[in-house]
Write a structure and sequence with these properties.
This protein is of the alpha/beta class. 39% of the residues lie in helices and 26% in strands. It has ten helices and 14 strands.
Length: 298
Amino acid sequence: MDTLTRMRAFIDVVEAEGFSAAARRTGRSKALLSKYVRELEDDLGALLLNRTTRQFSLTEAGHTYFRTAADILKEIDNLADLVRENNADLKGRIRVSVPRTFIDAPVGQSLIDFAAANPEIALEIVAEDRFVDLIEESFDLAIRITRLEDSGLIARKLSDFRVYAVATPDFVARFGPFDHPQDLTGKPFIVDTNTRSHNNIRFQDPNGGALSVPVAGPIEVNSPQATLRAAQAGLGVAIVPDFIVLPFIQSGELVTLFDDYIVKDRGIYAVYPHRRYLPAKVRSFVDFLTAWFRKTQV
């Protein structure tokens, strides 16, 4: 039995968090997977898994082997994808991390449309509002709505993106005027704790330079959707992404504030680890999203 087969069995067991789950996922028997892992340990002369009747844990050697072996197998799979790239059919699994805000908004339709157009690709969407470690957590890529910063990742911009400072007309009439961002001082503000600045909102002075305005208010929540609803309820000013707030601005339910001061250096990006061979399925996915945003002009 070749080393790659044993290595793949070990990776399958660790990623599935158990022999039984790995057997169901791969279609191989639990006994066969156990045999492969045992042979791999014998070949290495090291114990990789501490086994009990109900669970297992990685040894220190197992942790080291898993990290390197996972990268090796991914490179092998990516190289195979690259060779097959000219084939019409794209197959396999793509594991993507996305913010909840993205998947719950109209732009989330882009992922559904890709899945519908590529039935041979299993799209595993993990929605959570944190920056995952793509390599450590075995993600193929992530969608990030952010100001691009330097990192060891490759980023491809899918679309421009901005935020708006909004409030209801009644709120503006009661607490205004709001002519300058400093007018937010002491006024009710809905804080979205997903933002890195939290209680200090960054603005750009039209004449150059940056402004940082401390804010506070009746609600702090890690959800742009909840932030929007709080603003609609007249509880304060909120900073909300364009792709969820524009319909309410266009209807007049909300009005925008400080348009000349809003920072416009953000975008929607697809980011992925820097690997020598980018899988054809991932490249196809990113190309699809780029075309989708260009077509819909979100």
